[in-house]
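Our platform keeps sequence and structure together, in a single record for each protein. Such a record has a labelled line for the sequence and another for the backbone structure tokens. This encoding replaces a full spatial description with a residue-level series of whole-number codes. Below, we set out a record of this kind in full and without editing:
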Amino acid sequence: MAVTSYGPLESEDGTRRFEIEALRPSKEHFVARLKGVGDRDAAEKLTNVKLYVTRDQLPPVEDDETFYYADLIGLAAVTPDGAPVGTVTAIHNFGAGDVIEIKPETGEPLLLPFTGATVPEIDIAARRMVVVPLTAVE
């Protein structure tokens, strides 16, 4: 519900802005009424339009244990002993939990579950994240 206090939302390309007039919970999602979207036909034209909040509209992070996923993009990923793994390029959620995508210097991107066991440490100030790569099951 906090999204109502962030101000206007923008389309992915930033060319369109939307103001929330009303928002209410409904089962596992929210139902919103947007300013200027007066009927069902206008609302249907917005199907699958992704809406975003600019970073400066979000509340500040108040402690070292809290971060926005956008803060993780670009962090150096290192093993617990400090060996480089790569750079965090994305955080995904395919439905079974968050997954971190790490691009190594060479080779294919690594996808690791974003759990406390796999990511025991995140240091935003130092621009690094400790990851414990999964080992092959024998």
Observations:
- Residues 69-130 form a domain with the SH3 type barrels. fold (CATH 2.30.30.240).
- The chain has a mean pLDDT of 90.
